[in-house]
Amino acid sequence: MDTVTRFDPVAEHxxxxxxxxxxxxRVVAAVRDAxxxxxxxxxxxxxxxxxxxxxxxxxxxxxxxxxxxxxxWNAVLPGDEPGDAPLVDRxxxxxxxxxxxxxxxxxxxxxxxxxxxxxxFLRATEGLAPDTPVAAPWYGExxxxxxxxxTGLMLSESLVHGLDLTRGTGARWPIAPHEAALVLGQFMPxxxxxxxxxxxxxxVRIAFDLALKGGPRLAVVVDDGSATVVRDAxxxxxxxxxxxxxxxxxxxxxxxxxxxxxVATGRMRAGGRRPWLATRLGDLIGTP
Length: 288
Hints:
By secondary structure, the protein is α+β, with helices and mostly antiparallel strands. The protein has helices at residues 9-33, 48-67, 73-76, 87-98, 104-108, 110-125, 147-169, 177-186, 188-191, 198-201, 246-253, 259-264, 280-284; strands spanning 133-135, 144-146, 205-212, 217-223, 226-231, 240-244, 268-271. 49% of the residues lie in helices and 12% in strands. The radius of gyration is 19 Å and the shape is globular.
């Protein structure tokens, strides 16, 4: 029988902050060194400058509760999407509007803006408990996240969109396994239940054992339109076990790498009683 692992939430939160500090510096350098911010990025439809503007909006949204900086929510919330639209669709539409928040002058100083907002967040949240509640209205009215998840969100956005930036500039963008593992442990347990596609998951009951090499182990249970994600879950019977390299799982989750490539390179594999269900996970739980 599998043993139950444990993690120290305070120590892991501090490791996430340290990782974010390093990745923020890399993002700022990538934006500053970009030869042409109007060049296409690795994200279809967005330029390198658009990706940087999106990150500026993310850093503002995550830090405003602590820094007091004003957010023009009336420009991005609420949208025209129906309230019962899948959250992934609503966040995607919000992202498209948020990219337009920066005026040309702010885009000219984008690297400095990213550096300031990232530093402001880290400074304002230093010493706070990882379970400190943080308002996250972009995920819905009255929604709060623990600070650990918000920090993981900033790390996730910085890693994934740093890749988008450098795919447009031709620079290298390595992602370390421990950086990806921190995202998967700190952010994913909070956001995955929120991004389940209720229509697709209606009537579906599947228990996934998600084991990230060198990283966290998550029990992801889809149950008739909803989902729960638990770290350090007690041993139980699972329908499908997914073992994956944390970097590859992060990139597959955010649709930067196709799942067939992850399987073909041996960095993701399925097992358990019903291994063929592995491909359902990404279909049932989306990412914006």
